[in-house]
Amino acid sequence: MMIDGLDALTLARIQFAFTVSFHFIFPAFSIGLASFLMVLEGLWLKTGKPLYLDLFKYWLKVFAVAFAMGVVSGIVMSYQFGTNWSVFSDRAGPVIGPLMAYEVLTAFFLEAGFLGVMLFGMNRVGKKLHFAATCLVALGTFVSAFWILSVNSWMHTPTGFVMGDNGQFLPGDSWMDIIFNPSFPYRLVHTVTAAYLTTAFVVGGVGAWHLLRNSANAHARKMFSMAMWMAALVAPIQIFVGDLHGLNTLEYQPQKVMAMEGHYDSHPDGAPLILFGIPDSEAKEVRYSIEIPKASSLILKHDLNAPLAGLDTIPDEDEPPVEIVFWSFRIMVGIGFAMLGLGLWSLVARYRRKLYDWTWLHRAALVMGPSGFVAVIAGWITTEVGRQPFTVYGLMRTADSVSPLEAPAVATSLVAFVVIYFAVFGIGTWYIMKLMHNIPHDHETGVKRGDIGPIRTAGITPGPSQNPGDRETFPGSNRESQGPEIVDRTRNEEGGD
Amino acid sequence: MRFDPKLDGGETGDARPLWQRLGWMLAIWVVSISVLGVVAYGIRFWLKG
After folding, report:
1. Can you tell me the ipTM of this complex?
2. Tell me, what's the pLDDT at A105?
């Protein structure tokens, strides 16, 4: 077996990396999707246009599945603190325990509780209370992110604690110093914005997919237009916030930035920006590097000649794994700029009135659909691997945090997680893809088209389609088949954007 | 309780008195978190096992 020969610590780290990577995909999607649903339902109540309700129904089903998988995978992770990381939990528990409890309480009592009302309650509680439930779910996803990112940020920039005689981290005078630790505001904004962008690109990708099949589909037009507005407006904000987050990291976790930049050596007269290269931690150099002289100093210090320390100033045993951090950072940044590019392209298309007809734009949006997930995972790897070899930065090593377990025990549970996660979440993800493959249409229901009702009247006379623009319903030309109502509304949608 | 994926029952819901709508909201909320609690305990027992 491949995992033979690995010690319990390495296996526990692999297990946590595996479970957190799986888990992070779902809240990264559901945080943004909850807010999107809130906007859609709010627009429906405000304007009375059924198109918004159709889109709300369409994405609510996706949200319910994504949320369920996020909660289940999150529960596993919280238990993992006890099974594999009991020493860490024991020592850091007095500080992070209450914050994690708030996160769980928020997930249970706001998100999960009111999701039930969203799914089951419209005909029981009425429109306004239903909208209130939607808002509370959206609020819950944000508050949940607030607490868990506060915990995570404290592990990067621990403040507000006192060290107990037994080696425990104990709360100091003010919980505010713990909650609002130095990296928290930047990480919160950067991560939540990433979640919004992730959702926007999924929605945009799905809209583009359906526009490629039928560019007159009003529902696809609306979701594509809304997503592209998000891309154009939020991607540049995210790049700016990411820069601020990087400057904060340079101040509090300099060796993480050294690894991100691939700076093995110090540069007293201005450090180059290494665009690409192959880091070699044995030789302590970046091979075949393509560099922009002094640009790193300009970005990080706003001065071309500002000195920047390198990993040569850090003891070897305190260095993070440079190769992983170097590459994951470039993947995240590369995707961020690709998102910005797509957003700008959509503005050009909008200006030229080709937003719904520019096939290459739709193809690009389709390809970029899952890019947000890759970016958030890459970003998460950058920040978490960059914190190594510590769990609590500078104070508690990862090697000292693991439970006293034998390797076979961790290996067994790791194999079980891999098998079950791929099976359960594979099915869930497949189902989400299936839902998104369905063409958004009038009177969205979520049941199969064949279950909606007859698409033909009795006899041989073709009946009106319940799903205008669906090629399965109209195998021939879609546009000719849709009738004036759809075309007129489409024009209205264009004007409404 | 009927699953309402169509979400077309807004008018029906609005016709109910406020106390009834709030009561339904509370009831659905309690059932929802109870279901999640059962799932959480199920996973806990699985991991402990």
Report:
1. 0.83
2. 84
**Paired strand residues for A392:** A396
> Is B34 touching A (CB cutoff 8 A)?
no
Q: A396: which strand partners?
A: A392
In tens, the pLDDT along A48-64 reads 898 999 899 889 989 98
User: What DSSP state is assigned to residue A456?
Assistant: B
- d(Cα A286, Cα A263) in Å, to the nearest integer? 8
pLDDT attached to residue A37: 94
* Interior/surface letters A145-174, b for 16+ CB within 10 angstroms, e for the rest: bbbbbbbbbbbbbbbbbeeeeeeebeeeee
Nearest to B43 among A61, A76, A445 (CB): A76
Q: Do A122 and B43 touch (CB under 8 A)?
A: no
The residue with tokens 């189902």 is A431
The CA–CA distances, whole Å, from A12 to A57, A246, A307 equal 40, 29, 39
Tell me the per-residue pLDDT of A226-252, one tens digit each, with 9 for 90 and over: 999 999 999 999 999 999 999 999 999
CB-based contacts of A488: which residues, under 8 Å, 6+ apart? none
**E strands, A110-259, in order:** 161-163, 169-171
The Cα of A282 is separated from the nearest Cα of chain B by a number of Å equal to 40
Q: Nearest-CA distance from A106 to chain B in Å?
A: 11
Q: Which residues of A435-444 are buried (b: 16+ CB within 10 A; e: fewer)?
A: bbebbbbbeb
Query: Is the separation of the CB atoms in A216 and A490 below 8 Å?
Result: yes
For chain B, the domains span: 16-48
Bridge partners (DSSP) listed for residue A103: none
Using CA atoms, how far apart are residues A300 and A253, in angstroms rounded to an integer?
A: 13
Query: Domain segments of chain A: what residues?
Result: 8-250+324-437, 449-496
What stretch of H or E contains A392? strand A390-392
Q: What's CA A18's distance to the chain center, in Å?
A: 16
Q: If you search the block for the tokens 């999707």, which residue do you land on?
A: A33
- Look-up: residue for tokens 């390198």? A310
